[in-house]
Structure formats: C-alpha cells, structure tokens
Design goal:
13 helices, alpha/beta, 400 residues, five-stranded parallel sheet, 2 domains, Rossmann fold, eight-stranded mixed sheet
Length: 400
Amino acid sequence: MLKGKKIILGITGGIAAYKCATLTRLLVKAGAEVQVIMTPNAKQFIQPLTLSTLSGKPVISEFFTANTGVWNSHVDLGLWADAMIVAPATASTIAKMANGVADNMLVTTYLSAKAPVFVAPAMDLDMMRHPSTVRNIELLRSYGNHIIEAPSGELASHLVGKGRMEEPENIVKALDAYFETEQTFAGKHILITAGPTVEKIDPVRYISNFSSGKMGFALAQVCADRGAAVTLVSGPVALTINHPNVERVDVTSAIEMRDAVMQRLEHQDAVILCAAVADYRVEQQQTHKIKRESNDAPVLQLVENPDIAKAVGEAKTAKQITVGFALETDNEQVNAQAKLKRKNLNFIVMNSLRNKGAGFQKDTNQITIFCDDGRELPFDCKPKIDVAADIADVLTTYFK
C-alpha cells in the first residue's frame, strides 16, 4: 500500500535515531518516496549522508541550504506529503509539536502538514510517564495525530520499561494498515454520540456520570480518517478534535442529545451510540440555588430520560446501521445481548468494569462485540484509538 506514497520521515535527537536507517530502507523498498527531515540534534546520532544515500534525496535540516542559499519550504513539504512520520519522537519534540513551538524545520513542517501524522515516541521510562509527556501525547492524539505506542523493553539507560521506539518493521506495518483502510468509509455519513449528559438540579448542581468521552472521540477520529463525514454529538467533555471530516455538535442534557441525534438521523448511513446518557433527570429543575437553610435534605424527584438508542432503533431504515454500547458490572453477556435485541441494534460493544483497563476515564478499553448475525468477537485490552479501529473494522463488514 506504500507504493508511490510520498513520506516525510522526521528524525529527532534520540539514541533510537539509528533505527531510522532501517526504517528509511524499508519505506523505499515498499515503493515509497522518502524525504528525511532531521533536527540539528538528530545529526549527533546518525549521519545525514547515510539517510541521503538510503532515501535518494538530500536530507533537510535547516530552513535554507547554507552553501547555496536555497530555501526549504515547509509549506511545500506539507502539501507534498501523503504522510509524515516522526521517529524517534523525543519528549522535547513532542512538547514542541503539542504546543506549536516552531523553532526548527521539523516542527514547522509538522504544523504545515495536510497529511496524516504518525508519532513514534522514544525516551527513558521516567520521561515517558511524566505527567507533562503524558499530557502532550494526549494533546497530539486529540489533534488527530496517530500515536505509534512505545513498547516496553531494555532502554539506553539500561532500565527496563516503556519507552523504546517501535521497531521499523512495525512502523511500516502501521502505515500500511492506515493506507489500506484509508477510504473504506468514503461517501458514508456516520453520527457518533460521545461523553456524558449533564442533568441540572439547580444552576450550580447536576446529575451525571464519569464518562470522559475518550471512546467516542476516538471513534470519530478513526471514522473520519477512513473517509466518513462524521457528526459528533458530544456531551460536556474536556476533549478537542481537529479533523476536516468531523462536525462537532455540543449538547448538555439527554433531551438535547436526543433532539440533536433525531434531527440528523435521516441523512446517516450509520449511528454509533457511544455516549453515557443519564438514565434520569430531576423532574423540576430549580431556577435558583437550593440553600441549606434547615437540617432537612432536599428530596429530588427523578423521571426517566428519553432512551436515545431505542428511539434510533425504532426510526432507522433497513439500510441504516446502528451500534450500541453496554458497560456492565455483572451478567455482562446476557445483558449486552438483551440490549442488542431490545434496541434493534446491528451490533453492540460490551465492556465490563470488572476488566482491568476498561471503563470510564481510562486510555484503554477491553471489549467484546456481539452482532445481530450471531458473531461474538472478543478483543484484548488496548488503547482506545485501537479499540475504535476494531469497531470500525466490524462496521465495515455491514457496509459491504
């Protein structure tokens, strides 16, 4: 799938830069045209001559070539590429990319790139798990970048843990997989709900749940990357998404989410109901803050919220695909399969709070998918962006 693709390989100043000779060779062998961009520090770890010889192109490091004065246009490079890989991506470069610090040719080209960007972090384990690095990687992911996770192993410090750059063969496989599935959803319209709903009690209090919206946003990213026109209906979350194929609709309550979904349902090829919608709301919202003026606690009268999945299942056409989610704590399979039938879904994604790494506010998930044709598809625990890819793969089978 890489034959004829134009690839920018951005190399930063980490010991894993030596692997980029192999990475360049593999990309060229796969038929890609490779332009290497190096940070000044990267040249301390691997010689530009090696990479120039392997790629067949002069290596770019500065904004202009010193001996000729030729300007290296980051804008032109950003338009030229079909993909950009930053490998190894050091903590410093990740921070610059996440925060727009364009002080070298590599980061400036990244900020100009129109193509998908793949980031392969590599650093010592304490740097990898530092809160600032974790935050910056999540920022890059939220911008739509593809993070090629660093595996565990022995590091340059001789410590053992997460922080090794992924092997070149696996980076090439990740690129191959992207281009293989690149346009599988082209021409499709997919609506995705994400996050919690917030049901007000009074102007300062509310009923909600612990959903972060990460799973729904990951699904929006994957579906958009595969060519779909995505409508993302999101409850209140602290997440961002920046993709030309994604239209974001922000809502607060379950009723607002129901209305947003139903108004747009007619034009969708698929609806993925990932949001954690509150089952109940307060019957009578107070317009003023409830004051604690006595020892008697207020009694909240709750009423049921609309069942969005059921409403979509009843209104959908025979050609529309609907996907639900079931977060369970017991009798997981029985409850999920019952919901699959009750809500007239094509398939349902089940996860259990009893599984380590699954559930709200986590970066990973472990799912089992139950399909209306009898398929039962279990998956290992993995990052939510990879879980989203698994879900999208199953959705693809319904579009064929």
